[in-house]
Amino acid sequence: MTDQPMRFETIEQVEKYLESIPKFGLTGSGAANFNLDRMIRFCSRLGNPQDRFPCIHVAGTNGKGTVCQMLAAVYQTAGYRTGLYTSPHLLDVKERFRINAEEIDDSSLLAFFRENDALIAEEKLTYFELTTVIAFWYFSREKVDIAILETGLGGRLDATNVVNPLVSVITSIGMDHADILGDSIEKIAAEKAGIIKPGKPFVIGNLKKKAREVICRIAAEKGAECLEADTARPVVEDDTFQFEGTGRYKGVRFHSSAEGRKRIDAINAAMTMMATERACERLMVKPEAITEGIERLNSLFPRHAHFERLLPDVEWYFDGAHNAESVEILIDELLSRAPAHEWTVVLSFMSDKLTGEVASLWNRFPRILYYVQDRERAAREEQMKRHFPEGEQITDLKEVFSREQELSKSELVIFSGSFYFYEKIRRWMGTMSA
């Protein structure tokens, strides 16, 4: 490593450096590096911290963030010191690195950069690669009992895929990032199946037939046991979820309002339960920890951007649904609460997510407002107008909120289109610390 002056004396310098690195959310594939060579080399020079703790590795188009949080809640409830690495962050990069639901502190984040300044300068990792390395380093340094790791994009060449997990999970497979992962469900399935490790069990959610066939074939080639969430036989009645399948957790029940996502969260909980069961040889978890952990989910992780209520006294919600499958689930929930004409829909998209299919789902709502984000990847005004010809462009939600005739506190409002819209909404509403 070359000698150079210390660049990181304060957390502000760290934050400034991180802001200077191109991010996929801002610029797209140009901010990514689909090659594991740099990750392998960097981790090796750090002493391979990713090998110093057991982990569960989670990939998928939809549901992976929720499954990661569920797993983290269960293991924390069971008494284990639990690391959780997820992306993207909603408000602050420190959200990506949690131990027992608490974000990394400034002093620990600064310590990583001070200890590894020269190596960081030499290797020049992408934003996601660097945050992944920070997670490995932090979880190793803090001696977690287990870490739950969410992939960023795909699986096979994802920066997280240098781990050897106890169990892998593939929640769902859709046509997200087809320009990068492949132009068919089969190609995308093969990329996500890259997290399956030889001889290690893995769990799958409700997959389309073609995706399931590809994944099962790859699993068979690797001698990996495949467990399907449906075999847990999740049953939902009102706010009660119960699993009637076989195994250690047969009959487990929990209560959850699961606003906006009961149908999908039954499968998410089933995957959580099955992954936990397969890891029991290393980390025993009692059935009651499954129940209590999932019931504590919203208190441990109040900011999740999945049909999240933004204020306690009004029915304004945020949901990061950004592909046809997740948008359809969200709209089903909205229409179960009130007819389309009673909702105000406020949308903002990344350009690659705003498709004709997604727009047609939203266009059943007569009142649509749209906002153009200041990101290179964001959908521009012309694209928004083309897809939402009856919609109204807005430039400042503060102004909209302040006009009672435009958006009253008694109105039903859904903000959606992109997880990257969440921070803007919170800043506009003045509830960054809510």
From TrEMBL:
Q: What is this protein called?
A: Dihydrofolate synthase/folylpolyglutamate synthase
Lineage, top ranks: Bacteria, Pseudomonadati, Balneolota, Balneolia, Balneolales
Q: Could you name the domain of life of the organism this protein comes from?
A: Bacteria
InterPro entries recorded for this chain?
A: Folylpolyglutamate_synth, Folylpolyglutamate_synth_CS, Mur-like_cat_sf, Mur_ligase_C, Mur_ligase_C_dom_sf, Mur_ligase_cen
Naming one, the record's GO cellular component terms include: cytoplasm
What species does this protein belong to? Rhodohalobacter mucosus
Looking up Gene3D superfamilies in the UniProt record yields: Mur ligase, C-terminal domain, Mur-like, catalytic domain
Q: In what residue span(s) does the Mur ligase C-terminal domain sit? A: 313-419
Provide the reaction this enzyme catalyses.
10-formyltetrahydrofolyl-(gamma-L-Glu)(n) + L-glutamate + ATP = 10-formyltetrahydrofolyl-(gamma-L-Glu)(n+1) + ADP + phosphate + H(+); 7,8-dihydropteroate + L-glutamate + ATP = 7,8-dihydrofolate + ADP + phosphate + H(+); (6R)-5,10-methylenetetrahydrofolyl-(gamma-L-Glu)(n) + L-glutamate + ATP = (6R)-5,10-methylenetetrahydrofolyl-(gamma-L-Glu)(n+1) + ADP + phosphate + H(+); (6S)-5,6,7,8-tetrahydrofolyl-(gamma-L-Glu)(n) + L-glutamate + ATP = (6S)-5,6,7,8-tetrahydrofolyl-(gamma-L-Glu)(n+1) + ADP + phosphate + H(+)
